[in-house]
From TrEMBL:
It comes from the Bacteria. The lineage of its organism: Bacteria, Bacillati, Actinomycetota, Actinomycetes, Kitasatosporales. It comes from Streptomyces wadayamensis. Gene3D superfamilies: Creatinase/methionine aminopeptidase superfamily (3.90.230.10), Creatinase/prolidase N-terminal domain (3.40.350.10). Residues 5-138 form the Creatinase N-terminal domain. InterPro entries: Creatin/AminoP/Spt16_N, Creatinase/aminopeptidase-like, Creatinase_N, Pept_M24, Peptidase_M24B. It holds the Pfam family Peptidase_M24. Residues 146-348 form the Peptidase M24 domain. This is X-Pro dipeptidase.
Amino acid sequence: MYQARRQRLRERCAAAGDAAAVVSRPANIRYLTGTAPERAALLLGVHDPAADVLLCAVAPGARPEEGRPDEALRLQLLDGPGADPAVAAATLALRQDRRPVAVEEHDLTVARHRAMASAAPGIALTDLGGAVEQLRYVKDEEEISCLRIAAEITDQALGELLESILVGRTERHLALELERRLIDHGADGPAFASSVGTGPNAGLARHQPTDRRVEEGDFLTVSLGAVYRGYRCAIGRTFVIGTTPADWQVELYDLVFAAQRAGREALTPGAACRDVDRAARQVLTGAGYTEGLAPVTGHGVGLENVEDPQIAPAAMGKLDARVPVTVEPGVHLPGRGGVRIDDTLVVRPEADGGPELLTITTKELLAL
């Protein structure tokens, strides 16, 4: 699988006239090699697959979350503790007389790019651009299987939390417990810092948990995700604590749920990303909520928390089958709280049943 991925990149580089490529972005390295150890770079030989080398400071495999490297790939450890793997890769390309060399300029600092040019004088450094990210855009079924397991772990962790006593506990404590439960159920770790918001903090995007305690009558919003074999998912849910929801809470929840459903139903191969955003956003704006809406309704997920595509008003491009995305509209009312509902789905054609919902925790407005 990894050899096939590297071959697709090789073909792109050959078409551009490059003799080698240095991949430095960690998610791209993992996609092409199966591992992403700290301080690593991949040297890809465009005309000679046997020349592929993963240069790293420490041999991968010591930590399970790093993944295991493709056995067909040659490893080379860096000489010193301060050595830069991208610079070492450029030096190796010079020794092998491979020129020009494509590099990921969007991942490199100016200083690192200059150091590579200095270490390999006479080798032209061209821009690889987002070639690897473009290969990663559509997932294969092995990747989707990893996302599916990450979603199952996330659902399990959230489901167990909902069965515990919540009143009186702090946002920070609940967030830490969620992350512990993710690990307990087999996650490599949390995909991102878990967010718990109660009362006036509920519904805030990317809310950092505080020491505010959960009170009866609060909205409670939770956002979390697991990493499994490098692949990340996200889920967001909103609940009411300890009592029958107030009328305004039911009304707001039903509105956000309708927006989220409209966005999910718009996920079809060939759909414009901006049209998916519009489908969800117009439900909220049509009800008079125009201030404070998130700039995006969703985004791609995979080896990184946020990947292409962006589901936003000005987003370019269209969806393809087997592209995993989030749909996560929300409304926050200052001083009162709000609602967020977030799912991870895979775009599928209608013939295959339409979008595949990976995160399946109920979206019913529960009173916990």
